[in-house]
Write a structure and sequence with these properties.
Structural class of chain B: alpha/beta
Largest interface: A-B, 17 and 13 residues
Shape of chain A: globular
Distance between the termini of chain B: 54 Å
Largest sheet of chain A: 8 strands, antiparallel
CATH superfamily of chain A: START domain
Oligomer: heterodimer
Number of helices of chain A: 3
Low-confidence stretches of chain A: 7-26
Strand content of chain B: 15-25%
Largest sheet of chain B: 9 strands, mixed
Strand content of chain A: 35-45%
CATH class of chain A: Alpha Beta
CATH architecture of chain A: 2-Layer Sandwich
Number of domains of chain B: 1
Mean pLDDT of chain A: 86
């Protein structure tokens, strides 16, 4: 329990302590965005790969990609413990708008979750990475509360955005 | 005299048997006043062939199909055994109460239109025919926005297994792909086609989504355009794919 509290506290600090990354309620259920000093094309060049997000997230150990490298493509993401997994389906992909969306099909305690990445060109080698999430309903379960799930999601996306930014810089 | 009576008896039995084996085809026009949609819709039932065990094919934009003589063309194809016998249900999009064509309301991923279809239309039509069809025996054909509607029904309808999407134009429905992604429907047969300078832009995404669901998909690209001339030449192939 003590360990769990420490993890929650750490998560809280990550979310509150971040100055450039923030979450807010807008039209989406959750929005995370970050302004970076890198061109939109460079950031999108990394994001559009889609099949290598295990490089950028510590909650994903392995990706198995099937189907198109675009709409209809699916990625099976396995957790580091080798047991947990989630399956996602790409439902929108647009190079010209630097955006893609994916639906969470299995492995998460929510119904109808669709997430979206978009890179907004701010000019002068600046861009903004925006991640939004919408879902229909949280499914009550013994492993995780809704707040814990959203906290985990927030932390994972913040981590991924930070790591993608670092990779795009190099 | 006895012999004459016997001959008449045999003749009578022969006539009865002949009539039973060549049951007249059913051609009926009905109007459905929909509680769900608040409209009055014309529906034409056309039967090809005389067998009883055959599929039922629902066709949206039915008034246009009839105007273009597609019903006669399908009858002709059936007579030459190019396509299987079937019941064809031509569903008009015109609201008879206002004389407005409602296709741009009905076909844009509209759950009310789906409810109308599954709860009202199918009941009325299949009661009229006197037969309830299984999911495997039902098909839906749509062209253009009607094909968008067919794609949405493929994701949401629980009562239809076979779909023909001719020149699907999908931009009015941004949530279509996620509806397909989250769909629990299995084992669908989907024929999907485009002409040239037609629906090419919308095909890859739809194909990608349907293939990700492991559906039985057949793709066709023709040199025709976004018109009935093009759809006419492929409708036989679509029907054969759905019910072969």
């Amino acid at each position: 329990m003590k360990k769990f509290k420490s993890i929650l506290l750490a998560l809280l600090l990550v979310v509150i302590g971040s100055t450039t990354v923030f979450a807010q309620k807008a039209n989406s259920d959750v929005t995370v965005s970050k302004v970076v000093d890198i061109s939109a094309d460079k950031v999108w060049g990394k994001l559009r790969q889609m099949d290598d997000i295990d490089k950028y997230s510590s909650s994903i150990a392995k990706i198995e990609w099937t189907g198109n490298h675009g709409v209809g493509g699916q990625r099976l993401c396995t957790a580091p413990d080798g047991q947990g997994y989630f399956k996602e389906s790409i439902v929108a992909f647009d190079d010209s708008q630097r955006t893609y969306s994916y639906a969470l099909l299995e492995g998460v305690p929510v119904k109808g979750m669709v997430n979206n990445f978009k890179v907004v060109d701010l000019g002068f080698n600046k861009s903004m990475i925006v991640w939004t999430s919408n879902y229909d309903e949280f499914i009550k379960n013994p492993n995780m509360t809704k707040d814990q799930f959203l906290g985990f999601l927030n932390q994972s996306i913040n981590e991924m955005i930070t790591n993608i930014t670092t990779a795009a810089k190099s | 005299m006895r012999r004459v009576i016997q001959l008449f008896g045999l003749l009578f039995i022969f006539i009865i048997l002949t009539r039973c084996s060549s049951r007249p085809e059913k051609d009926v026009d009905i109007d459905i006043e929909s509680l769900t949609l608040g409209v009055k819709i014309g529906v034409s039932i056309r039967e090809t062939g005389t067998s009883r065990d055959k599929p039922i094919i629902y066709i949206t934009d039915g008034e246009e199909f009839l105007n273009q003589g597609l019903d006669l063309y399908l009858e002709q194809l059936t007579k030459t055994s190019s396509i299987p016998e079937a019941y064809y249900i031509y569903i008009s999009s015109i609201d008879m109460l206002t004389d407005q064509n409602k296709r741009n309301t009905f076909f844009f991923c509209n759950p009310d239109y789906l409810n109308f279809f599954e709860q009202e239309l199918m009941n009325v039509v299949e009661t009229e025919i006197g037969q309830t069809f299984t999911r495997e025996k039902r098909g839906l054909v749509g062209v253009s926005f009607g094909a968008l509607n067919a794609a949405y029904f493929a994701a949401k309808a629980e009562t239809i297994q076979n779909f023909a999407l001719l020149s699907p134009i999908t931009y009015p429905c941004s949530d279509l792909n996620q509806a397909i992604a989250f769909s629990e429907n299995e084992d669908l047969h989907i024929f999907i086609s485009t002409g040239t300078h037609d629906a090419e832009k919308y095909m890859p995404a739809l194909l990608g989504m349907f293939e990700s669901k492991k559906y039985n998909v057949k793709e066709l690209t023709t040199s025709g355009g976004h018109d009935f001339e093009n759809w006419k030449v492929q409708i036989g192939e679509a029907i054969n794919f759905m019910f072969d």
